[in-house]
Specification:
Elements lengths: L9 E2 L7 H18 L14 E6 L5 H13 L2 E5 L12 H10 L4 E6 L15 E7 L5 H13 L8 E5 L6 H9 L6 E5 L11 E4 L2 H7 L2 E4 L10 H8 L1 H5 L3 H6 L6 E2 L12 H4 L6 H20 L14
Parallel strand pairs: 1-5, 2-3, 2-4, 4-5, 6-7, 6-9, 7-8, 9-10
Length: 319
């Protein structure tokens, strides 16, 4: 797997990976898809010795179950750690909880947390190998990688193309990963939405008019409006007019005479950012993203399990 002996043991951000490592993950994702999509192959025998846990401190359907399937397809033992019924509720720290999992024999924990940048504190002394399943509004690197794999798997060329991300990019952790990832493959990134929702980054162009953005775009990436992160009257007003100003439907796309691929990380709010007719059309790649999520996350697990890091776990301080 190329440079995977240097794959990070705490995978927090796209910035943690080299371009060679990203390309290797894409290659292995494609190999996994070929091997497993017809359900004829048994799990890899060499991975049966490993134990992988998921711990989701925020609700999840797609990411959690995608990792669960990836773990089991590899042949690893899968532990679903229920944080709501754990000692975290008694005041135990995340670090102590992760160390407990390590000493119980867990090799990797896929962690989702509402705290941004929480993984950074573990990088110098990892209590366990960790994969970021989404941390607050910081990043969602595995989602960005599976999105990239989906585009490439569909035969879409990114070099010299424009990808427009429409929606609340300021609070979107996957956006914060995509703007680090897509330019490495030659893509220009536009962020479109109400100015209050736009994430400012040196790698992107900001546009507040959907028609203008569509006219420039080769690929659209739609985001749901995260109502749970907004409770002010100002945001309520924006939400009420959002579909008219920034929601897409087939009529809006046909107006520009473009057959633009449309991605969405889910869950989709139908009738808000995206219409049902787009979801049912051949332009929509959201379900392919779901399919490919398993194969990409398998590749990430394989890379981390095989990185050879012997420095994991508690290191007692000499007295």
């Amino acid at each position: 797997m190329g440079d995977m002996n240097k794959f990070p043991s705490v995978f927090e951000s796209i910035d943690d990976l080299t371009l060679e490592q990203i390309r290797s993950l894409l290659t292995v994702s494609a190999q996994n898809k070929i091997r497993f999509q017809d359900r004829q192959f048994a799990p890899y025998e060499s991975y049966r010795k490993y134990v992988v846990a998921t711990s989701f401190l925020e609700h999840s359907t797609r990411t959690k179950h995608s990792f669960g399937l990836a773990i089991q397809k590899l042949g690893c033992m899968y532990v679903d750690f229920n944080a709501e019924k754990s000692s975290l509720q008694k005041g135990e720290s995340i670090e102590e909880t992760l160390l407990t999992l390590w000493y119980q024999g867990v090799d990797i924990c896929v962690l989702r947390t509402s705290v941004s940048n929480q993984f950074s504190e573990f990088k110098n002394n990892p209590p366990i190998k960790l994969i970021n399943g989404g941390d607050g509004i910081n990043e969602h690197p595995t989602q960005a990688l599976l999105d990239l794999f989906t585009l490439i798997d569909q035969g879409l060329e990114l070099d010299g193309k424009t990808v427009t991300i429409v929606g609340d990019s300021k609070h979107s952790r996957v956006t914060h990963s995509l703007v680090r990832l897509l330019p490495q493959f030659g893509a220009k990134v536009i962020l479109c939405g109400p100015k209050e929702y736009l994430y400012e980054d040196k790698n992107v162009e900001l546009v507040t008019n959907l028609d203008e953005a569509i006219a420039q775009s080769d690929i659209l990436y739609m985001l749901r409006i995260q109502k749970e992160r907004h409770n002010s009257p100002e945001y309520t007003k924006i939400y009420e007019s959002y579909n008219q100003n920034f929601g897409i439907n087939l009529a809006k796309l046909k107006k520009h005479n473009k057959a633009i691929p449309v991605l969405h990380p889910g869950p989709a709010n139908i009738g808000v950012e995206i219409a049902r007719d787009v979801l049912k059309s051949e332009l929509f790649l959201g379900y392919q993203q779901v399919v490919n999520s398993v194969y990409t996350r398998m590749a990430i697990l394989m890379a981390m399990l095989e990185n050879g890091d012997k420095t994991i776990g508690h290191k007692p301080v000499r007295l």
